[in-house]
Amino acid sequence: MKVESYYFSGTGNTAAIALAYEKALRLEGHNVHTSSIEDTSKVDDHDLLILGAPIYASNMPELFFKWFKSAIPDGHGKKAIVYSTSAVTGNAKGIYSVGKKLQKKGYELVDIHAFVMPRNYYIDRFEPTPKAQHLEEIKTAANEVLASIEAIQHPSPVKIDQSVFFIDFFAKVFRLMAIPLGKKFAIEDHCINCLQCEKNCPMQNIDVKTKTFKNACIQCTRCIHECPVNAITYNHQHIEPYKLLDQVSSHIH
Predict the structure, then answer these.
(1) Which residues contact 180 (CB under 8 A, 6 or more apart)?
(2) Cβ–Cβ under 8 Å, residues 222 and 15
(3) What secondary structure does DSSP assign to 141-209, as a single string?
(4) SS3 assignment, position 86
(5) Cβ atoms < 10 Å from Cβ of 84
C-alpha cells in the first residue's frame, strides 16, 4: 500500500507522531512518504492519506486549512486517517473538521485520533508537563499509533455527521486573537543573528535585522523553542525551550 503522510508541527510533537506512523507502517511492509506541509504543495498519489496537526484553541491552525484546500485531491473512495496533538483531548475538535472535509472529498475515514502529548505551550498561566508524565504520554502515544494502524487492517469507517461550522469559525477568531498576542514576543540583545527563527517561522513573521514581529503570528512558539541562545522572550519572560525527552517512534517495534 502506498501511504502519503503530511503534517504541520510547531515544535515537534506532531512530527514525532508522523514519524511513528511511518515506522509502524514500514514495519508492516507499506511504502510510506512523510512530509511537512511546509515542504509540500500537492499531495502525491496514494492508497492511504494521513493528515496531522496540533490543536490551537480547539482546531487545527488556519495555515493547515489553507494548505488542505489547495493540496488535497478528491479521494475517490481512498482511505484516510486524521490525527491531532495537544496536551489535553477535551478541546481537540480539529480532527472532526478535517475529517468531515475529507469525507466531502470522497475519502473513507478509517480512524480519527486525538493524541495527548507533552505540553509545549507553557507561557502565561500554563506549566510544562512533569517529566514522568511526559515520558508516559510518549509511550501511550506509541501504543495508540499501533492501534490506529490496526484500524487500517480491520476498517470500520468513521462517519462525521455533525456540523463543524462553529469549530471552523472559532479557528478564524483565534487567528485574529493571535495577532496582538504575537506582539508579546521580543528578540533580546544577546541574539547571535543566526536567522534560525526568521527562516523557520511558518508564517515568515520575524525580521531579525529590525528585531520585530509582524502581524501573522499563529502562536506556534517555534521561534522560542528553537532559538540556540534562548534570545526570544514572551511578555518579557524567558521560556525554557521545549524538547521531547524521547521519540514516539522509539517505542514502535
Answers:
(1) none
(2) no
(3) HHHHHHHHHHHHHS---B---S--HHHHHHHHHHHHHHHHHHTTEEE-TT-----HHHHH-TT--EETT
(4) strand
(5) 29
pLDDT digits (tens, 9 = 90+) for 113-168: 999 999 999 987 889 999 999 999 999 999 999 999 998 887 678 999 989 998 89
DSSP letters spanning 197-244: HHHH-TT--EETTTTEE-S------HHHHH-TT--EEETTEE-PPP--
Beta bridge partners of 191: none
| AA identity, residue 4 | E
Contact criterion met (CB below 8 Å) for 218 and 181: no
Exposed/middle/buried for residue 55 (C-beta within 10 Å: 0-12, 13-18, 19+): buried
For 173-203, write each residue's pLDDT tens digit.
888 888 899 999 999 999 999 999 999 999 9
Rounded to a whole number, what is the distance in angstroms from the first to the last CA of the chain? 19
Q: How far apart are CA 182 and CA 235, in angstroms?
A: 10
- Contact indicator for 125, 191 with CB cutoff of 8 Å: no
